[in-house]
Amino acid sequence: xxxxxxxxxxxxxxxxxxxxxxxxxxxxxxxxxxxxxxxxxxxxxxxxxxxxxxxxxxxxxxxxxxxxxxxxxxxxxxxxxxxxxxxxxxxxxxxxxxxxxxxxxxxxxxxxxxxxxxxxxxxxxxxxxxxxxxxxxxxxxxxxxxxxxxxxxxxxxxxxxxxxxxxxxxxxxxxxxxxxxxxxxxxxxxxxxxxxxxxxxxxxxxxxxxxxxxxxxxxxxxxxxxxxxxxxxxxxxxxxxxxxxxxxxxxxxxxxxxxxxxxxxxxxxxxxxxxxxxxxxxxxxxxxxxxxxxxxxxxxxxxxxxxx
Length: 308
Description:
The protein is an alpha/beta fold.
């Protein structure tokens, strides 16, 4: 008798869970039609689209994949782009997750490379900058942390309840920017941007074949080629750089040489927007409706290189 009661209780819990999950999914899709839930039409349509992955460091994350996807949709191009930019990314770090990227079978990968990826003393330089500019470091870190919390905890009880259930049942947002919170950031006037500290004693750029980052970069190129994944590379923008002019030229020559050797297109954006009022800080373009030129340029290179 006790087993029968236990069985009935378990069946009731399972039935209620199924009804609750289904009803919440239907409600969420009405309340938020862009949400990619288990039963979402968006989720099923996504499987029919070819995939474009955008990879790189935080200097890549301001590229608005939602805008790009909308333009692809308007032009009836059956592709979907995901911005997989990650904090402090570099070829060596990206190589560790390469098998996961390839397993998701992208048709195109757009790779944003930063000249600082090839600074052999980048860790020392980062520590040096934090010690001399602790206010900037903690301000940005605190702002990003608090913003991510605020995004997860909406104001009204209704929004808070639905968002919490949505998060628990179907995972975190945003769908096309999974690794860094994509939220609006303010534009800092160029005249207010602080000059980079003098880090010349820590600068040591290495573009030789012996550099671990170069070795990793070549492995990434070969893996994409072996898996028939089209690669497009661009240099990420900065407002100002501590690298000297000779190092910048060597960086450009290195990318041009590998572009010819491995047959992939290369675009240089590193010094294109220097005088424009679109910056959050010296190396990050702000996420803002007035800074879409960066996103539009990436869209242009995609349309130019991809065989849609």
